[in-house]
Amino acid sequence: MSNYTIYHNPRCSKSRETLALLQENGIEPEIILYLETPPSVETLAELATKLDVESVHDFIRDKEAIYKELDLDDLMSDQELLPLMNEYPKLIERPIVVKGNKAVIGRPPENVLSLINN
Q: Per the omega criterion (within 30 degrees of 0), is the bond before 108 cis?
């Protein structure tokens, strides 16, 4: 089993580039196709901690149509947003790469080098 996990969307070029960068560095991560298997609310909260973000707003895709449909521009609490991110996984920024108790968003893909080099 790999020490790395990637929350991956194969249709996303940045997600594909991030996965390729991991593989170029000899890493075969566990791949979670998060659109097919959305992370639980608890897992999303853990990801927020591992990403070291102030709010889950920091890893929400605010350009997605569902973001506008749900009118998420009004600041909502993390406790309100996490269930929506679980229900509508398109809201989750991608890709997220996790190693141990740290995680980074692969935008740009080179962000994962900080996990590899530690």
A: yes
The reply to whether 107 belongs to the active site is no
Other CB atoms within a 10 A radius of the CB of residue 114 amount to 12
Q: What digits encode the pLDDT tens for the residues 33-73?
A: 999 999 999 999 999 999 999 999 999 999 999 999 998 87
pTM, whole model, 2 decimals?
0.94
Instruction: Measure the CA–CA gap between 108 and 105, rounded to whole angstroms.
Output: 8
- Could you count the other beta carbons within 10 Å of the beta carbon of residue 110? 12
- Residue 71, CA atoms < 13 Å, CB-side half-sphere: 1
Residue 45, burial from CB neighbour count under 10 angstroms (0-12, 13-18, 19+): middle
Cα 51 from chain centre: 9
Which among 5, 12, 31, 45 is annotated as catalytic? 12
**Given a cut of 90, is residue 5 above it in pLDDT?**
yes
